[in-house]
Amino acid sequence: MTSQDPDLCRRALREIGEIAAVAVLDGSAMTEQEALQTIAAIAEWVSEETPSDRAGCGDRIRTLNTMTDGVDFDRLDDHAAVALFHAVVGTLQRPGAASSS
């Protein structure tokens, strides 16, 4: 995917949603903290690659980026990581979170 890809934002949101879904599975090897780190990296990258809202989801990506920007994930305790993870999931579950292609 490149910044020339008009579906970059929607694809990123789908990927973020899949990461969040894996993290909440019983017995998942991925913790909420690991999911947050991955989600934050994707949101930051998409924000840098698509500064304008090309796919109608830029606001959602910017919100995720704002929620996770500057967070030291290695220093988050379990309670704080779970709380932030649930806030991120709440943002993803808002109507219009990831448009289907």
Number of domains: 1
Largest sheet: none
What is the terminal separation in angstroms? 15 Å
- The helical percent reads 55-70%
In short:
The chain is mainly α and about 100 residues long.
Walk me through this protein's architecture:
- This protein has 101 residues and is an all-alpha fold.
- It has helices at residues 8-23, 32-49, 58-68, 78-93.
- The protein has one domain (8-93).
- It contains four helices and no strands.
- α2 crosses α3.
- The longest helix has 18 residues, at 32-49.
Key features of this structure:
single chain, mainly alpha, 4 helices
List the helices and strands and how they pair.
Blueprint: H1 8-23, H2 32-49, H3 58-68, H4 78-93
